[in-house]
Amino acid sequence: MPLRFTTAGESHGPALVSVLEGMPAGVPLLAADVDRELARRQQGYGRGRRMQIETDRIEFLSGVRGGETLGSPIAMLVRNSDWKNWIEIMDPAPRDSDADGLRKRHVTRVRPGHADLTGILKYDRSDARDILERASARETTSRVAAGAVCKVLLREVGVHVGSHLVHLGGIDATRPASLPDDLNAAADASLLRTLDPDAEARMITRIDAAKKEGNTLGGICEVVVRGLPVGLGSHVSWDTRLDGRLGQAMLSIPAVKGVEIGLGFETARRTGADVHDEIEAAPGRTRAGHVRRRTNRAGGTEGGMTTGEELVVRVAMKPISTLMRPLGTVDVATGEPAQAVAERSDVTAVPAMGVIAEAMAAFVLAAALLEKFGGDSLRETQRNLEAYLARLDERIER
What we know:
With 398 residues, the chain is an alpha+beta fold. 32% of the residues lie in helices and 19% in strands. Strand 16 and strand 17 (337-339) form a beta hairpin. The radius of gyration is 23 Å and the shape is globular. The model has no long low-confidence stretch (mean pLDDT 94).
């Protein structure tokens, strides 16, 4: 079975659900492995009150026993602590107050940049809450849960996924010449998950100013994956190219508008001599096929496949569309000009977006790993990978 996951739940509903299918049996997995990633998603300077209300914790409903995966679907539940305050508004059952067509806290003053307007037109709804509750980035809690399990699988085969913030609100962070060995430990120590303390101070000042203005800020995070073997993905069909799959996964994250691998758009501004990575022999680098790229401008992929170098993906998030000083819109109930609704929101969620991007990358890479090496159990997958690496060693010996 191919690796896949699905999510369910609304932002202010009773709970969020994540179901991951296709994970081999025997992967060591504890609730703490998932809870740690959920906590990382909630961090970051500039977050709103929701992060103070919710303390996300996973409940395994199926697929795990005795600290190991079973090979069956892994169902995970995260309860919404704030549900008690939204029962009347989000109750699935009909209520007498529904007679007038709109419940309390209904939304008709749709927000520019959000799914509100397009969603109510597409699904023929009169209350944009029917759209925004699912379109909310709260849904990414379930993605991070699925990605956390995928990270454990990757870790068991020597692959590690991390991220750090490189831009926020018009301010660039200086990227170190050499990234820390434990990238996430270093990034998570920062309020904004950046490795540049000087830039962080200026970013915090920028966030504070935007908050006073009732405004929001976007930014860019960089995902870095180490330990990947050469050859994940394929060149043979459009939908098997790994870079394409990573792009789709990243662009599915709410508010993400851009993705680039390696130099990305900068490659269009340079000559071929300044873009392509020269190759040299490197005996002992089994996972890269006993070669190395002198540079890594390609970001770890060539021809839709991993090269064995670090995978580097940058993800751009636009400013959140809920402004405390709302933009102009139309009230869809009256057709009259109005100010957009101001739902509870963040000034910026870019640091959290980096954690979500890690989860999506982990899922895509875990799926590609299992496609190549298969295995109904972790040990079988590991043996298949070891046999592949042994064949790469044999090539260099010949």
